[in-house]
Structures are given as C-alpha cells and as structure tokens.
Amino acid sequence: MLNIDDPKATEKIPAILRLGFRPFFLGGASVAMLFVPLWLLTWFYPQYSLFQTDFWVKVVPLWWHPHEMLFGFALAIVCGFLLTAVQNWTNQPGMKGWALALTFACWLLARLTLLLPVSIPLWLPALLDSLFLGLTAIKLWRSIYKVKQWHNIGFPIMLLVAMMINLLSYYALSERDFSLSQQIWQSMLWWLGLLITIVGGRVIPFFTAIRIKATKPEPIALLDNSLIIIMVALVVQAISQVMPKEVEQALLYAAGGLHLLRWSRWNPHKTLKEPMLWSLQVSYLLLPITLLAMAWRIDDTMAYRHLLHLFAIGSLAGICLSMISRVSLGHTSRNIYEGPNMVLAFACLPIAAILRAVMPIVAPAEYQLWLWLAGGFWSLAFAMFVFNYASILSKPRIDGRPG
C-alpha cells in the first residue's frame, strides 16, 4: 500500500468511503445477490413479485435484467477495481470521501430509480448512470495523465465508451427497440471480455507465478495485441452487425484459439490447491470455451444467446468474484490466502454457468428449472461474499493505514 494519504485526514472519513473498492464491491455483490432472484420471480411469477405489472410502465423486464447485470453489477465491480488500482499504478491519491460518496450515490440511485413502482422519466437513471461512469473516467484520466502513464490511458477511454453504449441502451428502451437492445448487451459483454483480455492478461499469470514460486511467462506481444484487436472487432460487430456472419465466425474461432493458447502458458494445472488462483484460471478458461462454442453454433440463434451466459456467468462473474475477494483482503492488509473460505462460492458460478447456458440447449423442455437452479447457485455465491466481506469492507484497515 502506497503511503500517499494523510492518516489523520483519512481517519475522519468513514471506512466504507476510504477507497473505491469498498462501496462498489459491496454494492455490486449485493445487486448480484438480490436482482437475479427478483428477476426470476417477476418474470415467471409476477403475481407473487414485490412489484405488480404496472411497475414495468417504462422499465421492461426483458431490458432491465441484462442492463442491471451489466451496468449495475459488472460495471460497479469494474469501477471499484479501477478506482483502487489506479492509485497503485500512478502513486496518486485515490477517490475517497465526498467524491467517492457522490460517485457511488449516482450508481445506487440509478439502480433504485429503475425499481420505483411508478412511471419515471428515463433521462433520470440515464443521467445518474452517466455521472457514475463519467466521474470514474475523469478520476482515472486525471491520475494517469498527471504522471503521463500512457499505457493505462485506455481504461478511462473504455469507460467513456461504456457510458455512450449505456445511453444508447436507454434510447433503445424508450423506443422499445429490443433488437437494438440485444446488440447492445452482446457488445457490452465483449467490451467486458476486452477488459478481461487486458487486465486478466496482466494479473492472472502474475498472481499465479508469485504464489507457486515460478517464473512468470513472458507475454507474447503479437499474441496479446492480436487478441485486443479481435476483441475490439467483436465489440464493433456486436453493436453494428456490419460484417458477414462468416467473418464474425472466423473472429470468434480466432479469439477462442488465441485465448486458449495464452491461458495454457499460465501454469493452470499448478493452481488446483489454491482457490484464489484456480477460480481465476477456470473463469478465464470459460472465455475461450464460450468463443469457440458460439462460433460452432453461430447459425443457431437461440443456442448463440444461451451461450453468452457461459461467458457472463462463468467467466465475467467468476473473475469478478475472485478478484473482489482477493482485493478486499489485500487492500485491508489481510493475508490474501488466509481469508474467508470461498471455495463453495467460487464453485457455484461455473455450475450456474453450465445450468444456464448449456442445459437449456441439451434439455430445453426443463428450461425454467435450469434458470431457477442457475439463479440459486449464482445468488448463493454472491451471498457468501456479502456475508463474509461486509464487515471487512466497512471497517478500517487492520494495520491502521489509509485505504
């Protein structure tokens, strides 16, 4: 932890607002835990839901679920991680106090306004979401620009792109254009896949090498750069549909093969005894598996959409859960490998991914059963995080230092 804050000043700030990971990890995990069962209940049994059908005057369930999983859950974890990591990258003070409270409040109020059982003007949650992402991007930009750390400048740019895509999603909702919405959700999933390509490629082999006491494999620039270019192309294709399906299929096969090659160099077989490592390795592995499976089933629209959940649950959410468990311990001065037992939680997400993405293709007649089972495993995973980490995130560092 870098000594770049005045401890006396930091002590006046509530612990939950001392660094970005604290409110956003807890908030994002809580949304993940609660919103999936709420979605299933509202979708399949609206008569028993907390909300009656007039709740969906403007906020359509078909739109709300993917939007909140992407911009409510995933982007909260991403922003919490980046607001924390940028302090280490740049040696500049992280966002904290009132600035962090304001940014988090924008995120939280956007979630709550979408849950109001009244007709709301859509510009309100759209504005709040834009402020949340915009304030985060500005903070990253200022810290990175101040030390001229250009190799990280892509992160605030990516957040601004996400903000524009989110605004487009609100436009799609206002126009009831759910075909455009589907393109937006897929583009954001590949946007997050791009982020995993960049960040995961840095941290997973690094964490693995340190723990197993091995030499970190040297990155192959051609491989890494090719993956970034292909993932960017998939983001563009998802939202624009400008390329022929044959080209998209080739991109999916290429990305899957290259990701698999990259992953194989990270000594995954040596991590099986360490949950904090195998959870990252398994989650990353599900990215190329998803890409290859989607390339194979590209002509089957329903299977193609189901398989997106293999990435969304098994890879994206799996990496999120593993990283927030790790970062929450490390940045509160606890031993990363002696924290709460999260083995069951880490195992729940690959199981949920298979139940949600694969089983509806194998046994479509039991579709509703698979969704409820997947939702149960998903919610259990994040409930375990909230239960085990709420006190850690809401209390000061155990070494008394800022952060």
Distance between the termini: 8 Å
The total count of strands amounts to 0
Regions with pLDDT < 50 over 5+ consecutive residues?
Answer: none
The proportion of strand residues reads under 5%
- The helix-strand sequence is HHHHHHHHHHHHH
| Percent helix range | over 70%
Q: Indicate the radius of gyration in whole angstroms.
A: 20 Å
Characterize the main sheet.
none
Structural class of the helix and strand makeup?
mainly alpha
**Average pLDDT taken over every residue:** 93
Shape: globular
Q: Count the helices. How many?
A: 13
Keyphrases for this structure?
mainly alpha, single chain, 403 residues, 13 helices
Could you explain the architecture of this structure?
Helix content is 73%, strand content 0%. It has 403 residues and is mainly alpha-helical. It has helices at residues 7-10, 21-44, 61-90, 97-113, 123-146, 154-174, 178-212, 221-240, 245-264, 275-296, 301-330, 343-362, 367-394. It is built from 13 helices and no strands. The model has no long low-confidence stretch (mean pLDDT 93). 47% of the residues are buried.
